[in-house]
Amino acid sequence: MKTINLPPDSSGEQSLQSIRRPARLYTLLGGNGSGKSLFMHEIARLNKADSYYVSAVTGGMPGKVTGSLTQLMTVLSLAEEEVRFNSLKSIWEDTFPGNKINIIDGKVRISNRSGKDYIGIRNLSRGEKAALYYIASTLLAPEHALILVDSPTLFLHPTAVGILWDRIERIRTDCRFVYDTYDANFASGQSRRTAIWIKDYNAADHSWRYQIIADGELPDEIFLQMMGSRHPILFTEGDVSHSIDMRLYSVVFPEFTVKPLGSCDKVIESTRSMQSLRTMHRIESYGLVDRDRRSDQEVEYLRAKNILVPEVAEIENIFLSPGVVETMAEIRNRNPKKVMKAVRQEVIHKFEQMLENQALQHTRHRMKRDVERKIDARFTCITALELHIKSLIKKLKPRETYDHLLAEFKKMARGGDYDGILRVFNHKPMFTGSSVAKLLGFSNIDEYVTGVISAMKHPGENAERLRSEIRRLFT
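Above: the chain's sequence. Below: its structure in token form.
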């Protein structure tokens, strides 16, 4: 892959990191005054022969857009541009389900959900004009161009952003893209892009101090700088590179800026901190943690604190919920009821094999929580503490708790309470052993997870149904 020339850093040396590891997709990040826009223009100058600049503002939005956009569309509507026009039509109709675009009497005409009649470009919404401009201009870029995109999320609804650029990038595989954005959700939600964090600009010697972040998590400092986008924040468990959380929740909750923090404790603490400082930053913030082995009382407490908790034990169980499995079966041309029956039987069977283990693990969690609560009292001396600890076994009643949970779990298994089992069954190997991937025609469980997430990136009835089914687990 051809490399791009980057501006010199503050030491006056050319950065070699990106040259040794060339990427196809770059995102420029940085706070106000960091020199990010100048950095973009310097990239254009250094790569002059390949550079192709795209901006919905200077290209222009609004006002000027109709003229320049009309010109682009006129070119694409010519007979010799039929292939590109069909690509534009495909991307547009994927991004805006229910919309149609055609050439009628030699003019481009578009229909949307608001009515059956075709309308002209001039009558589109500001976001629709921006999307059409981005598609048309990138399709007309020269072969192997370095496409520099200014503000790729401008005027666009969060649900449209990821779909639009994913489709454009997949059609223009010959090109490299550099995005200049303040949108933290766009930046953090695209782990396959290489981020270039612009820290500051030295006007005296026309150089920048910057850091290349290849396929990694954005540092907290740059994430906080970018929160000026004012999207509500959703803190999750996991990380950018290795967990499912970021990949799944960024498409399930596109209206949020999703920020993975690792542990559930950090998610809870960060949400609490952001909530306490809301009068200063005015940004809505929520957390999302696995249910794990929490009791109903613990879950209700967390939900009251803006922490979302699903009605399944862990994130893997989401992919085993009936709504997700049956929707994916329809997408894969399988019999939904037959697939779901087989998955249900396998999960219940594995749960039956691990009843005692699961009851013990749930008991352990409750004992640990109760010990932390009961031992938190004040003691006047070490003797009083010792006596208190010795009395805990009678107060905690671990055997009674275990017997109660075991009886409850046996009842779930006997009654075929599949939803109840998904709510309490914490055992990650169960996901792989459920055979759901094989039943749906995927070679392995990772492909199945990717298939579900990909299905939600392409708008339409199935994507909305999947998203709705997963969001239902949080209500």
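The longest strand covers residues 194-202.
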